[in-house]
Specification:
Helix 1 packs parallel to helix 3. 40% of the residues lie in helices and 23% in strands. With 87 residues, it is an alpha+beta fold. It has one domain: Glutaredoxin, CATH 3.40.30. The chain has three helices and four strands, in the order E-H-E-H-E-E-H. Strands 2-1-3-4 form a four-stranded mixed β-sheet, covered by helices on one side.
């Protein structure tokens, strides 16, 4: 599984999503991720909305194997349900 996390500096949920992805990557051989800092990469809200396919109000925006799953809350729920994460 490959996750892409779009986030920004100073965002606590972005930090939590990245920490969770790092934990999953360390614990599982089948999980990798890429964190994309939208400010550093020059990605605007409009660009992110095009990628997601709907209006975006918050970050992080997370994709698993190219499917948009939502933000940190959805990512954490998916990890608990499907990736053996125990809170």
């Amino acid at each position: 599984m490959f996750a892409v996390i779009f986030g920004r500096p100073g965002c606590p949920y972005c930090v939590r999503a990245k920490d969770l992805a790092e934990k999953l990557s360390a614990e599982r051989d089948d999980f990798e991720f890429r964190y994309i800092d939208i400010h550093e990469e020059g990605i605007s809200k409009e660009d992110l909305e095009k990628t997601v396919g709907k209006p975006v109000e918050t970050v992080p925006q997370i994709f698993l194997d190219q499917a948009h799953i939502g933000g940190f809350t959805e990512f954490e729920a998916h990890a608990k349900a499907h990736l053996g994460l125990f809170a």
